[in-house]
């Protein structure tokens, strides 16, 4: 069995091939195998599809509850000097008034 790449949109490993396209059963995203490699090479992207890199400044686009706390990271909070990591929470950062935390790139936009 050949190893198919994970979905570039949601990261699911349950992808399958259908008529020359790769399909994700979880989010219904379809793509051609060549574009999957290009999307993976581009790295982490924000909610608008802009590529992020280490040292960028991003803005939070949704109120984010902090797990295990009553604090909330408000919409419009600027986060400077981000660091990209692998995994589900792909941004490592320090937020003023909150401290160090990890964010998902889908909840930020590049400033």
3D structure, described in words:
- With 111 residues, the protein is mainly beta.
- It folds into two domains: 41 residues, N-terminal domain of TfIIb (Single Sheet); 54 residues, SH3 Domains (SH3 type barrels, Roll), CATH 2.30.30.40.
- It is 9% helix and 29% strand.
- It is built from one helix and eleven strands.
- The strands form four sheets. The protein has a three-stranded antiparallel sheet with strand order 1-2-3. Strands 7-4-11 form a three-stranded antiparallel sheet, with no helix packed on it. Strands 8-9-10 form a three-stranded antiparallel sheet, with no helix packed on it.
- Strand 1 and strand 2 form a beta hairpin.
- The longest helix has 10 residues.
- It is elongated and about 50 Å long.
- This is Alkylphosphonate utilization protein.
- Belongs to the YjdM family.
- InterPro entries: YjdM (IPR004624), YjdM_C (IPR013988), YjdM_N (IPR013987).
Major β-sheet profile = 3 strands, antiparallel
Question: How are helices and strands ordered from N to C?
Answer: EEEHEEEEEEEE
Strand-pairing-aware structural class: mainly beta
Please identify the top-level CATH class of the largest domain.
Answer: Mainly Beta
Give the N-to-C terminal Cα separation.
43 Å
Beta strand count: 11
Number of domains: 2
Mean pLDDT: 85
Helix content: under 10%
Instruction: Could you tell me the CATH topology label of the largest domain.
Output: SH3 type barrels
Query: How many separate helices?
Result: 1
Percent of residues in β-strands: 25-35%
Q: What does the overall shape look like?
A: elongated
Return the CATH architecture of the largest domain.
Answer: Roll
Protein name: Alkylphosphonate utilization protein
Domain Protein YjdM C-terminal: 44-110
Organism: Hyphococcus luteus
Domain Protein YjdM N-terminal: 3-32
